[in-house]
What we know:
The protein has 396 residues and is α/β, with parallel strands linked by helices. It is 20% helix and 27% strand.
Amino acid sequence: MSRPEQQSSTSANRACVDAVIVGGGIAGIWLLNLLRRKGYSVVLLESTRLGEQQTLASQGMIHGGMKYALAGRLSRASETISGMPERWADCLAGRGPVDLRGLQPLCERYHMFADASTLGQLASFFASRALRGRIRKLKQEDYPQPLATPAFNGVVYELQDFVLDTRRLLEALLEPVRQCAYQWHLSADDISARSDGVTLTLGETEVDAGHLILTAGAGNQALLDALGIDDPVMQLRPLNQVLVRHAHPYPLYAHCLTGIRRPEPRLTITSHPDGDGWIWYLGGQLATDGAMMGDGALIDHAMAELKVCLPWLKWADAEFSTLRVDRAEPAQSRGQRPDEAYASARGPCIVAWPTKLSLAPDMGDKVLALLPPPAANPLISLGIPTAELGRAPWNH
């Protein structure tokens, strides 16, 4: 796709666009790329740095919902997300709604492991016809390196899931639309309603937009309040994840199921480059429970969990830190996790949450279904600073 047209306007301080996206995480940048490829004139506003609030703190997993099937059955959540790895793979191959050719995954296949005593009835479920093509039991010679030891007496499965470097993902999405992404903290005073959309006052420039698309994650609620929109309501699911810098030479991308007591991985481990080595980033049940712990207690708990799940590795010299992250989602009954991406229209305002990284394509479909065909509006420079990408938390 060609870069945005840079044309002068009949009024140097006025622009007309199909949509303005507010929020520059995966939701906003995905939509910016998608809508530009569909012919829409659209710009994005981000108040800080792109991706820095939630996206760059994610583990980068593109998963098909197997971790939601640990009760021994396929749930609505696991079925809704089951096609996402294939859709993302199409994008990586240049066949999808956005073009991510050249973006290499951190790992091509994710794993699930447990000691020999844990799986029980789950083993027959994993071998069932319902999961054919989605999960595969590995031979010992095919185990990932950290599990390829005689000290591990268990089983390893390979999933269709993979992991992306989220900063490189945002870079790839941003590259063809970089001149459409601006740094601006939008307030209610900047917004005025029109019969056919909204007008935004951005410094010396006024922008007439057919739609205002809110993709600001946890910031959506403040924008909804400022606009006087009382539905949808947002919920936050707090997590406290753990970063482990260590001397082990190999990455690991896996769910640990050893000794699980509820249908959630005990540990969800991803690995991210750190100089000449790796940082292991720990989520799963550890991060869910960690939201209720102090940082010191969580670090002690993480060390104990690693000794149970990977007892043949040494952790005495590892460096531990914590990272609190709030998952922002549309409110559900009893605070449950949403099953799918969300998008709804309230007049000219569209509110969207992907609810998880994997579901960004699903969110894009839902937003596109709410928009009329694009108008013939040329894009111009808004005369405000362009937005910069943030840094992953382990690079701070």
